[in-house]
């Protein structure tokens, strides 16, 4: 139903607008519901028409109406991304309880993606309740409690081990505990198979981007993007296209 899809996309845009608030305020330890939206530069409260996802940014041409400070294009991009993820998830799960759980998960991944990119942290306030909610939801819904518990252990355990090995051999912190908790959360929500898909996708894309950045900076800089950003993209891909991806991949081996 195209009308329902459009409504869901718009719903996603509105949620994306709220995710922007979380992304800005969570790392700064500000309240999510007070004060209302305001310009982060001149503090002027925003009127309703400056708060419309995507549209306001375009109409204002990316600047505050009074102080003319540029507004980051990250805001409309995150709104559009959330809208598209909502559209894809609606298409995949239809109106089911699983849709609600998976959307909650996807929103957490989007928030973690940007916060890790901007601040290099993965706040416990998202990952720790995430593990609990993912496991609890799996008591009734896919992937089921067994796959969820295995995913939790595999996700947390594998990154913890990689971090330990890295630390023992190189003497530097290779993997933060934030990444460990984040992959445990991914496993709790999506199950152990998705943990493997997420790990493969995020390591592969991380390596590609890393090589690209090293090539661009002619090997001089040690430009490490935070791993949580790749985990988040990998998990969203695992959730939305994981199964066809695994089928396509195993097609190479099964005649
Ligand atoms: Zn302003």
Defining key terms:
255 residues; mainly alpha; 9 helices; 69% helix; binds zinc ion
Helix and strand arrangement:
Layout: H1 2-25, H2 55-59, H3 74-93, H4 97-119, H5 124-137, H6 145-170, H7 177-190, H8 192-216, H9 227-250
Helix pairs in contact: 1-3, 1-4, 3-4, 4-5, 4-9, 5-6, 5-7, 6-7, 6-8, 7-8, 7-9, 8-9
The structure holds zinc ion (ZN).
Number of strands: 0
Please identify the structural class as seen in this structure: mainly alpha
Mean pLDDT: 92
Largest sheet: none
Detail the poorly predicted runs: none
Q: Roughly what percent helix?
A: 55-70%
C-alpha end-to-end distance? 37 Å
Shape: globular
Output the helix-strand order: HHHHHHHHH
Number of helices: 9
Strand share of the residues? under 5%
Report a brief summary of the structure.
The chain is mainly α and 255 residues long. The chain contains 9 helices and no strands.
Verbal overview:
With 255 residues, the protein is mostly helical. The chain is 69% helix and 0% strand. The longest helix has 26 residues. The two termini are 37 Å apart. The mean pLDDT is 92.
